[in-house]
Design brief:
- The N and C termini lie far apart (about 160 Å).
- The strands form three sheets. A three-stranded parallel β-sheet has the order 3-7-8.
- The chain is built from 13 helices and eight strands.
- Among the domains are: about 190-320 and about 450-490, no CATH class; about 325-425.
- The chain has about 500 residues and is mainly alpha-helical.
- It holds the Pfam family DDE_Tnp_IS66.
Length: about 500
């Protein structure tokens, strides 16, 4: 009798536990291990992601804060810049530059005697390369003279012989002609640096390049500054003398412009006239105390200025407001409101009154009028100003100009009272500041107050020498080598 044996399978044991068909015949334990690993990695990534999100939010807040701070600083900087520099204005297009049509041309005057002569001969034609024959007799040659410069660096030895002074009981030595004691640079090297920096406005760094690359003289910016210090110190007595003469002058054309020192706002002031000279001073303030420091607290002459309010507090014998500034403001007002009949009428009448005064002054210079005629004309013009400014303007800017005319009513036609010494504009002072304005654009002012003071001294001496008909080179050379003097005429 056959006996069957039944074996029951264990449901907990999978026959394919090493290669599960549902897992791509992968080992289930391996798959489970990978699952646990990936779950752990996902948790780590979520933590990292959340931290990154928090960091990005924090950085975005910081960026927003920095942007606000940057915008505030930019606005502050723009305000400071507006205080220092006048805004650029688009000028109306002028005519074609250059001489007018039909103007006779001019050329440089030829040197009378050449320093050297080269005789230029030919053997072959420069065109066909063939042999040539020299032409003899009249018109057998042509001359071409060109001017050039010689760049030579030379060294000078000053051998000092010693002498015994029986009176002083000491050994003495002299100073050679053109010698600067304790200076390894000669007078011309110092002079050219002064002219480059103060007369032309070249920054020290560029001067250093010129000396090294062109003259073959290796210098540093520090050396150039030291040279300027010595020259400026020698010029201080002249600067002080000039200041006294300006304070005692009959008229002073005064103005100011921005002059940064190490990026901070400062002001370059000018006072003077064409007969005595130009005095410059750099100060961190733009107020009446600076003007009083230049002209004195009781200036007896006529002070010609623009309508800047600080000048209102300065005491002077008389004052003249710059008519060019008033005309410029009037022109701008007319340009802004071309369709406002009230503004147009005001500007036209004001223009006629001011030009009537200017024409009186010109005709007096031509001998057409006497001083009495000018005084009568001045009274008539002031009455016209009174009539023009009697009615309040609706336009705010026109009203501001009307009030300014009322405030300076007695200072508009002063030039008709003193026609021989006072000009109706402050153009002289603006011209005297122009070279420094150009220098400011290249050098951005000075880095130190000491450098600014040197600039004021050197510019005062150079501009005054030019106004007195002297060559600034001669003045600076006399400062470098000896005892200079500026003889200003009595004004």
């Amino acid at each position: 009798m056959n006996q069957e044996v039944t074996i029951e399978a264990n449901p907990k044991i999978c026959p394919n536990k090493r290669a599960c068909p549902y897992l791509g015949f992968e080992d289930p334990e391996k798959v489970l291990a990978e699952r646990d690993y990936l779950r752990a990695r996902v948790d780590e990534m979520e933590i990292t992601f959340n931290l990154a999100i928090e960091k990005i939010k924090s950085q975005n807040k910081e960026i927003a804060s920095l942007k606000e701070e940057n915008a505030a600083l930019k606005a502050e900087k723009d305000q400071e810049r507006k205080k220092i520099y006048k805004p650029a204005k688009k000028e109306e297009k002028q005519g074609k530059p250059g001489a007018p049509f039909g103007h006779p041309g001019t050329t440089r005057e030829k040197p009378k005697e050449p320093d050297r002569t080269f005789r230029v001969h030919l053997k072959n034609c420069p065109h066909c390369k063939g042999r040539v024959k020299r032409i003899h007799g009249e018109n057998s040659f042509s001359d071409h003279i060109q001017e050039d410069i010689i760049i030579i660096k030379f060294n000078t030895l000053f051998r000092h012989y010693k002498y015994w002074c029986p009176k002083c009981k000491r050994i003495v030595q002299g100073i050679g002609e053109g010698e600067i004691p304790r200076s390894y640079l000669g007078p011309n090297a110092i002079l050219i640096s002064n002219l480059f920096h103060y007369k032309i406005g070249i920054p020290y760094g560029k001067i250093e390049d010129i000396y090294t690359d062109i003259f073959g003289l290796s210098l540093t910016t520090g050396t150039l500054i030291d040279m300027d210090k010595k020259v400026a110190e020698k010029g201080i007595p002249l600067y002080t003398e000039l200041e006294k003469k300006i304070r005692n002058s009959s008229v002073s054309y005064t103005d100011e412009t921005g002059w940064p020192i190490n990026g901070d706002p400062n002001w370059l002031w000018h006072a003077g006239n064409k007969d005595i000279g130009s005095l410059y001073k750099i100060d961190k303030h733009r107020n009446h105390e600076v003007a009083e420091g230049i002209l004195g607290k009781d200036y007896q002459g006529v002070m010609v200025t623009d309508c800047f309010s600080a000048y209102n507090l300065v005491k002077a014998g008389a004052k003249q407001k710059c008519l060019a500034h008033i005309l410029r403001d009037m022109k701008e007002l007319n340009h802004l409101y071309p369709n406002d009949p009230e503004v147009i009428a005001f500007c036209v009448n004001l223009d006629n009154i001011l030009h009537e005064g200017l024409d009186l002054h010109k005709d007096y210079k031509k001998g057409k009028y006497t001083l009495d005629d000018l005084q009568q004309g001045k009274q008539d013009l002031e009455k016209k100003i009174d009539a023009l400014t009697r009615i309040k303007m609706i336009n705010k800017k026109a009203e501001a100009l009307r009030k300014r005319l009322i405030r300076h009513r007695s200072e508009i036609f002063t030039f008709l009272t003193y026609p021989d010494i006072v000009e109706p504009t402050n153009n002289f002072s603006e011209r005297q500041l122009r070279s420094s304005v150009i220098s400011r654009k290249l050098s951005f002012g000075n880095k130190t107050k000491a450098g600014a003071d040197r600039h004021a001294v050197m510019m005062s001496l150079i501009q005054t020498a030019k106004l007195q008909g002297k060559d600034p080179k001669d003045l600076l050379l006399s400062l470098i080598l000896g005892s200079p003097e500026i003889r200003a005429p009595t004004f």
